[in-house]
Structures are given as C-alpha cells and as structure tokens.
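Hi W., the zinc ion complex you wanted:
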Amino acid sequence: MIRHFQHYRVPTDIWIETFELRHMESIAKSRMPNETGGILIGARSSRGLWVLASIEVPHQQPRPNRYSLATTKANQLLQEYLRQARLDKSEFGYIGTWHSHPASCGPSPIDYRTVRRDSRYQRDAVAMLVIARCGTSGWTTHAVIASKRRTAVARVRTRLPSQ
Ligand SMILES: [Zn+2]
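Structure:
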C-alpha cells in the first residue's frame, strides 16, 4: 500500500478544445475587473484529464482579486448539466475548477492550497485551470493537477488524443 503511494504519479496533461478555452476567456473578460470561475466537467484517462465543458458558477460578491466556489450551487449546476447532456455518470463528472486572474499571472499559493484540499475529497485527480491576463499579452491558461494531496504543474493540450 505504502509502496503504491510512493510510486503514484500525478497526471500531467489536461486536454481541452480551443473553443472551450476561448469560452472561458470571454466569460473572464465580461466579468472584469472581477475574478470569476466555475467547474470543469469531463473524464479521466491514462493520458490525463479531459475537459468536456466548463460551467461558470458566479460568486455572490465578485471581487478583483478573489474567487471562491459556491459548492452547493456548483453541484446543482453539475447535476443539471449531466442530466441535460445525458452523460454517463460512471464516465463523466466533476474533474476540477477554473477561475480567472484579470490582473495577475499564474496560480497563487492559495490556488495551490485550494486544489490540494480539493483532491482530499476526490478519489481521482482534480484539475485547476487559471485563465490569466498577464499585462497586455492577452490571456494564458495555467493548469495545476492535484491527486492524493500532491500537486503538479500540468500541460494544457488542445489537440485531443485519437481514440
Ligand atoms: Zn487564483
């Protein structure tokens, strides 16, 4: 058991379609100067985490430098999405969160803590995407994956693996 844990590696790739990234960016832009965010719905495979859709879970009191997920609302929106899209719950579900940084770059120390804490309550790996607007260079996506309380910087990959 302990040996298994020591050899466990956090998945390193998050697969997402370009249009889904653009979708989050346009939401992020529309909420400026405040942060916004929500949840990621998708599936897991040996290649990493696959984001099928992102959903915004607006914060009651949006702020420029903070976003926290309203978990009850998030779960409600998740269940609604799974039902409406008729997705098989044994395969698709919650795989993490996303939020915007309208005025700062990568994930903060608090973000790392948050995703690590999230992984304590999940059986499998969870992701955090940070859609950041760094200076004038436009939006960039940063990703962290946490599993079994370990975190790792992940690669955002926009070309999906062939099945
Ligand atoms: Zn953040």
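Confidence is low (pLDDT under 50) at residues 1-6.

W.
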